[in-house]
Amino acid sequence: MKFYTDIYNDYRDHVYPCAEKEYSWYKKADNLRDAVKKAFLSEDEQGKVHSHQRRVGRQRLALAVEIALEYFDGHYISSFENFHSIYQFVDSVSCEVKGFGQLATYDVALRITKYLGCELQKVYLHAGVTIGTRALGFNVKDGDIIPVEEFPVPFNQLSGDHLENLLCIYKEVLANSIAEVGKTCICPKTNYSCISKNGCA
Fold first, then answer.
1. Contacts by 83-92 with C-beta closer than 8 Å and gap 24+?
2. What is the pLDDT of residues 33-42, one digit of tens each?
3. Is the pTM of this model over 0.70?
4. Which tens digit of pLDDT belongs to each residue from 78-92?
5. What was the pLDDT predicted at 139?
6. How far is 66 from 61, CA to CA, in rounded Å?
7. 14: which of 29, 96, 155, 198 lies 20 to 30 Å off by Cα?
8. If DSSP codes are grouped into helix, strand and coil, which group holds residue 43?
9. How far is CA 186 from CA 140, 151, 166, in A?
10. Residue 45, SS3?
11. What is the spatial distance between Cα 145 and Cα 164, in angstroms, rounded to a whole number?
12. What sign results for the dihedral spanned by CA atoms 4, 5, 9, 12?
C-alpha cells in the first residue's frame, strides 16, 4: 500500500537518523555496568533527561540507578542474553521505584540492548505504540508482544525498536487512514494476549 510506504519513507528520512544518533550516545559506555547506569539515568550528551523520562524525574531515576547497580553487581550480568532478558531486569528494578512506568522500562532496556549490539525482532506494545498497532487492524492491548514479521510491508523491514517508534509517532496518521484509504483489517497469525510479557501489574 502506497500510504504505508509514504510513512515508512518519511520515518527513514527524518526520524531514523535522529534515533540512531541517540542510540550512539548510549553505545559509548565504558563497560556494561556503565551502560546500565547511563541507561537508567536517561540523560543525553548535554546532561538533559530524555523527554520520555522527565515525568519520572531525576530523584526517581537516581534511585533506580542505585537499585539497578546493586542488582547488576549481584547476579544479573550473566543473564543479559537478549532484549527480553534485559527488559525483565529493568522491570524488576521498576517494580521498586514508584512512578517508573512501562515507557521508562522499555526505553532503559532498549538503551542497554543497543550497547550490547542486539537487534530487536519483536515489538513491545505500550501507550501510543498500541494505538498505532490497532490502527493497522491488530486486536491487541498494552503489554502484548508482536514479532516484526507479522507487520505489513514495508514496516516489517524495520527492527523492532524502530517499528515501535514509527507506530507511536505516526499513530494518529495511521488511525485517520482507516477512513481515508478504506484500509482492510489485517488478521494477525497469533493471539497476542497469550504472549504478553511478564512483570509487575
1. 83/109, 83/110, 83/113, 83/118, 83/120, 83/122, 83/160, 84/122, 84/197, 86/112, 86/113, 86/116, 87/124, 87/197, 88/198, 88/199, 90/39, 90/40, 91/197, 91/199, 91/200
2. 999 999 999 9
3. yes
4. 678 889 899 999 999
5. 94
6. 9
7. 29
8. strand
9. 12, 9, 18
10. coil
11. 11
12. positive
pLDDT tens digits for range 4-62: 999 999 999 999 999 999 999 999 999 999 999 999 999 988 999 998 889 999 999 99
181 pLDDT tier (thresholds 50, 70, 90): very low
CB atoms within 10 A of CB 15: 15
Q: Which three cell numbers stand for residue 136?
A: 493497522
Residue ranges per domain, the chain? 31-116, 121-195
DSSP run (H or E) holding 115: helix 102-116
Structure-block grid coordinates of residue 179? 477512513
Amino acid at 66: E
